[in-house]
């Protein structure tokens, strides 16, 4: 059995960051296990516009989806996750958003001691290389390059003017002092290519002799001596292998798979594990508290033809993709959505409750060419998104076989206020969409059907069409109460030398897409691992067998 100091399972946003930071110490031997392959250099991963094809062909994806959702007419929700070096950061939409000050202050108030806004700001700054340079809030020189979006479309000016009419100001930097308002996008894109966690952190660290990266290595369970984690078991090339960790085991397999590995190791709800014949080591609410952002899209036909449609002409797109691949320049290095808005739809709340994502293209664009395949009628849309859902879902084992996919239940709209609040977001988005500055662009409304003019009709449409924004979080929440799986130092309660570092530790959703949040968590975790605090478990209601 090979021996390391740290073993990290999962080379996604968090795992790549941690592996790179922990291996900065040449004396620390680090093993990083990744179930997927080294595909982060695939052209469709590197070229920003390649996401369309990645999604269409479900490339480098775990292929997960929810169980039928009771409040969505029994629909299942697709739940994409990256399965390659860089994890979901290698297949995501590359939007860089941090959230609001109040999100982190709420975390700290509710038991995540040490995670207030002032506590996490240095880590948001440490991770980034912002093209706007250093300030109190932003920083240049970090490993993750963040650049302003380059896509230009007159639609964006229309939206901003429309927002202003409704009292939403333009925000020139939504990752600065406040995230509120209508702002141009900031992206994990540099020199025309995706900046994944693999590119930013892992690849530069891979030459280090003290860092071992094993791909196609599927972690199955943590190995224990008593309650102390001492290693990990994993499948690779048809063999079952084990590796020993002298300092710590760290799970970074993401919000769906970290709970699976924990439960297979005997850490989770006792009854659930018992049902699958797994002996309980620590009875913890692993897999509960699942949350995600929920979104619908209002869509219109467009009176003019936008710049994105022009680039979808097949000869132009061929040149665009080649240009992006060879030189990192041109239209394929940008996404047709360069505006985001974080808004409060009513007074009396301290952080934005709704996000609008704008799309300067139809949902299903296709390649066209005059005389061969006619171009499509252009369109655009606005996606109101519920930022702070109150409903809670779960991740449960399907079986004790680690190769089986977990059972995911989002329980969307289980809490009645969620549907009401998303409806409020819809109303607000619709008003902005129908205001005068949008008139020159606005054609026929495609979705929802304009004939649906009652609240009940719109709510039914929301249930029929809502999707998640692919930000699952919270399934191993940090905190101090009985609902916490990890303490604020991210140590799994009731056992020793085992941490969780990924989106699953997020206690509740920030007003942000969460890739930057996970980078921040991993940066802070690296410091926690390197300078351990004394063990202190103040939690009640936990059984250690
Ligand atoms: C389609 C999509 C679009 C998104 N768009 C955005 C966006 O624009 N902006 C944004 O901020 N966020 C976005 N996100 C969300 C963001 O990318 C994720 O929240 C973030 O990457 C999660 O990081 P993580 O480290 O928790 O998990 P992941 O990055 O998912 O990493 C988990 C890693 O663990 C590996 N793994 C899993 N199980 C095992 C196992 N048993 N053994 C070994 N390895 C294992 C996986 O293969 C993966 O590499 C998007 C996500 C998706 C899927």
Structural class of the helices, strands and pairings? alpha+beta
Report mean pLDDT, rounded to a whole number: 96
User: What would you call the shape?
Assistant: globular
Instruction: Estimate the helix proportion, in percent.
Output: 25-40%
Kindly, what is the distance between the CA atoms of the first and last residues, rounded to a whole number of angstroms?
27 Å
Total count of strands: 25
Number of helices: 14
CA-atom Rg in angstroms: 23 Å
How would you sum up the major sheet? 8 strands, antiparallel
The unique ligands bound to this protein are: flavin-adenine dinucleotide
Low-confidence parts lasting 5 or more residues at pLDDT below 50?
A: 536-545
Strand content: 15-25%
What does this structure look like?
By secondary structure, the chain is α+β, with helices and mostly antiparallel strands. The protein is built from 14 helices and 25 strands. The chain has helices at residues 13-22, 43-46, 51-56, 101-109, 117-127, 154-165, 197-205, 254-264, 270-275, 307-311, 314-327, 416-433, 455-465, 515-530, and strands at 2-9, 30-33, 128-130, 144-148, 181-184, 186-187, 189-190, 193-194, 211-214, 217-225, 228-236, 239-251, 267-268, 282-283, 294-295, 298-302, 339-343, 354-359, 379-386, 394-396, 407-409, 442-447, 467-468, 498-500, 543-544. The strands form six sheets. Strands 5, 15, 16, 17, 18, 19, 22 and 23 form an eight-stranded antiparallel sheet that branches. Helix 1 (13-22) runs parallel beside helix 7 (197-205). The longest helix is centred in the last third of the chain and has 18 residues, at 416-433. The two termini are 27 Å apart. Flavin-adenine dinucleotide is lined by residues 9-15, 33-36, 80-83, 87-89, 91-95, 218-219, 252-254, 257, 261, 470-471, 502-503, 513-516, 518.
């Amino acid at each position: 059995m090979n021996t390391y100091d740290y073993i990290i399972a999962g080379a996604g946003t968090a795992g790549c960051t941690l592996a790179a930071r922990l291996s900065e110490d040449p004396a620390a031997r680090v093993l990083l296990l990744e179930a997927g392959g080294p595909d982060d250099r695939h052209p469709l991963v590197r070229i920003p516009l390649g996401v369309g094809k990645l999604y269409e062909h479900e490339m480098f994806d775990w292929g997960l989806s929810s169980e039928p959702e009771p409040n969505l007419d029994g629909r299942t929700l697709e739940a994409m996750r990256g399965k390659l070096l860089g994890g979901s950061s290698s297949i995501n939409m590359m939007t860089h958003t941090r959230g609001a000050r109040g999100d982190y202050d709420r975390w700290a108030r509710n038991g995540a001691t040490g995670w207030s806004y002032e506590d996490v700001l240095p880590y948001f700054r440490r991770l980034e290389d912002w093209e706007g340079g250093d300030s109190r809030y932003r920083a240049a020189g970090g490993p993750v390059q963040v650049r302003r979006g380059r896509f230009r479309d007159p639609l964006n000016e229309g939206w901003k003017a429309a927002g202003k009419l409704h009292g939403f100001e333009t925000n020139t930097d939504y990752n600065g002092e406040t995230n509120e308002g209508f702002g141009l996008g900031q992206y994990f894109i540099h020199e025309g290519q995706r900046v994944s966690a693999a590119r930013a952190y892992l690849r530069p660290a891979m030459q280090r002799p003290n860092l071992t990266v094993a791909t196609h290595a599927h972690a199955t369970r943590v190995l224990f001596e008593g309650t102390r984690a001492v290693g990990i078991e994993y499948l690779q090339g048809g063999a079952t292998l084990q590796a020993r960790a002298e300092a710590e085991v760290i799970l970074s397999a993401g919000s769906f798979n970290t709970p699976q590995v924990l439960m297979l190791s005997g850490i989770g709800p006792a009854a659930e594990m018992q049902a699958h014949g797994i002996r309980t080591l620590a009875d913890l609410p692993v897999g509960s508290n699942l949350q995600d952002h929920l979104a619908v899209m209002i869509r219109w036909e467009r009176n003019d033809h936008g710049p994105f449609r022009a680039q979808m002409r097949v000869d132009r797109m061929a040149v665009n993709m080649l240009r992006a691949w060879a030189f990192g320049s041109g239209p394929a290095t940008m996404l047709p959505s360069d505006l985001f808005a974080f808004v409060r739809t009513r007074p009396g709340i301290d952080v934005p409750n709704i996000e609008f994502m704008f799309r300067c293209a139809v949902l299903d664009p296709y390649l066209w060419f005059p005389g061969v395949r006619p171009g499509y009628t252009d369109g655009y849309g606005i996606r109101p998104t519920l930022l702070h859902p109150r409903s809670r879902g779960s991740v449960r084992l399907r079986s004790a076989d680690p190769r089986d996919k977990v059972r995911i239940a989002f329980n969307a709209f289980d809490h009645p206020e969620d549907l009401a609040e998303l409806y409020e977001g819809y109303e607000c988005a619709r008003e902005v969409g129908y205001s005068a500055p949008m008139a020159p662009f606005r054609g026929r409304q495609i979705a929802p059907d304009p004939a649906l003019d009652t609240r009940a009709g719109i709510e039914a449409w929301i249930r029929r069409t809502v999707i998640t924004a692919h930000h699952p979080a919270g399934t191993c929440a940090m905190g101090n109460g009985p609902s916490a799986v990890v303490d604020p130092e991210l140590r799994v309660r009731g056992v020793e030398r085992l941490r969780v570092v990924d989106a699953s530790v997020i206690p509740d959703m920030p007003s942000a897409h969460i890739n930057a949040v996970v980078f921040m968590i991993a940066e802070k975790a690296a410091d926690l691992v390197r300078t351990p605090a004394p063990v202190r478990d103040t939690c009640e209601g936990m059984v250690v067998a």
